[in-house]
Amino acid sequence: MKQQIRQGDVLFVKAEKVSGEKLSHTIVAEGEATGHYHKLIGLATLYQDGLRMFAEVGIGVVLTHQEHAAIPIAPGIYEIRRQREYHPRAIRNVMD
Q1: Prediction pTM value
Q2: Which residue of 10, 11, 12, 82 could cross-link 78, Cys pair, CB 3.0 to 4.6 Å?
C-alpha cells in the first residue's frame, strides 16, 4: 500500500525515485487566490519534471501552510500532486 499525506489541495505519494531538475526552493504550491503557500521546512529538496514534482525528504521535515496545521513528513521520496477540478473550459488546479 502506498503512503499518502494530504494538506489542503496538495497530496504526497511515496515514490521510488526522483526525476527532473533540482529546484532552489522548497515551496510546493502557491495559492493563486490567497497568496498562501505550502512549504517544506527542514532538510528537503524539490525536483520538477515537466508538470510532475518530487520531494526528497530528510529527518524532521514538516509541511506548512498559513491556513493548515503543520504536518510532519517521514523521510523518503514522494511525488507531489495537486488536486484538480473540472471547469467547462479546462481542467485546472484547485485554488487553495
Answers
A1: 0.81
A2: 12
* Cα–Cα distance, 25 to 28 (Å, whole number): 9
Angle at 28 between CA 26 and CA 81, to 5 degrees: 140
Q: What phi and psi values does residue 74 have, to the nearest 5 degrees? A: -65, 145
What's the CA angle centered on 79, arms 78 and 83, to 5 degrees?
125
Strand partners, 44: 57
Cα torsion for 27, 64, 12, 90, to the nearest 10°? -60
The pLDDT tens digits along the chain (96 residues) read: 458 888 888 999 999 999 999 999 999 988 777 788 999 999 999 999 998 999 999 999 999 998 889 999 999 999 999 876 556 665 455 554
